[in-house]
Amino acid sequence: MLRKTYTEDWLVISYRTRAAASWRCSECGADKSLARNELHVHHRNQNPQDNNPNNLIVLCKGCHDTAHERLHQRYSDVIKASAWGK
Ligand SMILES: [Zn+2]
Ligand SMILES: [Zn+2]
Asked: How far is the CA of 41 from the centre of ligand 2 (A)?
């Protein structure tokens, strides 16, 4: 079965990454220190196995949604350009 999963130490990495960012969104700067579950750690390359600090970005829920919409947009642009671009 092919399944993208978070690594076993993800909760620790996620916590450390958000703590290092002072529980603030790196996109809009929202302080989520009192609402920590609204602060997410996003994998830039969409690979939850890749916990390289360069691949991780701390985003609030809203900015995280936006980031994924952008990724979707880019993806559909690629599909349009390759498969149905003519
Ligand atoms: Zn934000
Ligand atoms: Zn994400």
From this structure: 7
Q: pLDDT tens, 13-64?
A: 999 999 999 999 999 999 999 999 999 999 999 999 999 999 999 999 999 9
Domain ranges of the chain: 10-82
Tell me, in angstroms, the distance from the centre of ligand 2 to residue 86's CA.
31
CA 79 – ligand 2 centroid, Å: 20
Q: What is this structure's pTM?
A: 0.82
Spell out the long-range contacts of 17-20 with Cβ–Cβ below 8 A and sequence spacing 24 or more.
Answer: 17/41, 17/53, 17/56, 17/58, 18/58
